[in-house]
Specification:
Bound molecules: threonylcarbamoyladenylate, magnesium ion
Strand content: 15-25%
Largest sheet: 11 strands, mixed
Number of helices: 12
Helix content: 25-40%
Distance between the termini: 56 Å
Strand order of the largest sheet: 1-8-2-3-7-4-6-5-9-10-11
């Protein structure tokens, strides 16, 4: 299959191209598109065969459910059994935006979309291209991140092309995404709202609206044997080809630990920040952003992991970015990429 990549200007969206993209979705095909978090691989969420094409294109296990994207609040009622008060409050506060809610599904949502579950994940993205595509595609677009299963999520159309060339007919290129990490997922079907995947919307932000919410225990404890509740969070993810280790402790000790392992050959990859870039004389050194601007780190994390694959490094060492808020989401993705390998150099 020939994959077409078409550039879309966000403040001057070409109606003809969006019409074409919408009709691909309506006829059961796949279209990759930008959202504010990462690029998505869209299909008509209410069409089982279309959803199945997503699993085939990504090589994704079929028990891993998809998020349904909507563009209008009035469309929520159709796909969920009922809208609890807490969902209304979160939608008021954070939609359109990088928040996904798990709710009980209605009968019209096929099990092919929910991986056999009676619950459904729903999100209303803020990206204008995404909204336009959803409206033209029938209103309900199932979309996982547009990467091959296990690879870092795509934050540019080029990343999507690397993974999806030949597998899908159309990629809408809206440039680099705003955030760079996938949406926060909050489960509203349990007794207490639970965050299943941290993202730009932090636990504290959800608590500020609802007065209560907690983190999924399976996310906090990496060796507890407790399974994360979002099926997708149990799979190995984002893993670069080279072994990645996260070094924790006072920054000067971290730098010296990493420098002892690097040499002039660029076989060792180093993930650092603007603030520490100059402290590394050797290695394949990549700054992912500034510690003063967490969003800049979120923006570049997946891109840097992809670049190390291209460079063919043998091992990667990363500084740690533990912090509340967005830092929690950054560390969650980095730890998954590292298979939870962390080295504490405090003492
Ligand atoms: O930012 C995002 O959420 C992006 C963009 C494209 O919107 N999408 C995304 O989708 O990250 P995906 O498929 O890569 O991740 C969806 C996650 C998976 O971990 C999946 O297991 C979980 O959501 N999920 C989906 N439906 C669920 C459900 N009913 N119950 C629990 N977890 C669910
Ligand atoms: Mg994904």
């Amino acid at each position: 299959m020939q994959t077409e990549v078409i550039r879309i200007e966000r403040n001057n969206i070409n109606a003809q191209i969006m019409q074409k993209a919408g009709s691909i979705l309506k006829s059961g095909g796949l279209v990759a598109f930008p959202t504010e978090t990462v690029y998505g691989l869209g299909a008509d969420a209410l069409n089982t065969e279309a959803a199945e094409k997503i699993y085939a294109a990504k090589g994704r296990p079929s028990d891993n459910p998809l998020i349904i994207h909507i563009a209008d609040m009035g469309h929520l009622d159709k796909i969920v059994k009922y809208v609890p008060d807490e969902a209304k409050k979160l939608a008021d506060a954070f939609w359109p935006g990088p928040l996904t809610m798990i709710l009980n599904k209605s009968a019209c949502v096929p099990y092919g979309t929910t991986g056999g579950l009676d619950t459904v994940a729903v999100r209303m993205p803020s990206d204008k291209i995404a909204q336009e595509l959803i409206r033209r595609g029938g209103g309900y677009v199932a979309a996982p991140s547009a990467n091959i299963s296990g690879r870092p999520s795509p934050t540019t159309a080029q990343h999507v092309y690397e993974d999806m060339n030949g597998r899908i007919p159309l990629i809408l290129d809206g440039g680099a995404v705003e955030i760079g990490l996938e949406s926060t997922i909050v489960d509203l079907t349990a007794d207490v709202p639970v965050i299943l995947r941290p993202g730009y919307i932090s636990l504290a932000m959800v608590q500020a609206i609802l007065g209560r919410a907690e983190m999924d225990r399976g996310l906090i404890a990496d060796d507890s044997g407790i399974r994360p509740k979002a099926p997708g969070m149990k799979y190995r993810h984002y893993a670069p080809k080279a072994e990645l280790k996260i070094i924790e402790g006072p920054i000067d000790r971290v730098i010296s630990y990493i420098n002892q392992r690097a040499d002039g050959s660029r076989r060792i990859g180093i993930i650092c920040t603007e603030e520490t870039r100059e402290a590394y004389p050797h290695g394949d050194i990549k700054s992912i952003g500034s510690r003063k601007n967490e969003l800049s780190i979120a923006n570049h994390l997946f891109e840097v992991l992809r670049e190390f694959d291209e460079d063919g490094v043998e091992a990667i060492y990363s500084e740690s970015f533990e912090a509340p808020g967005l830092g929690q989401a950054i560390m969650n993705r980095l730890l998954k990429a590292a298979g939870h390998q962390r080295i504490d150099v405090s003492e």
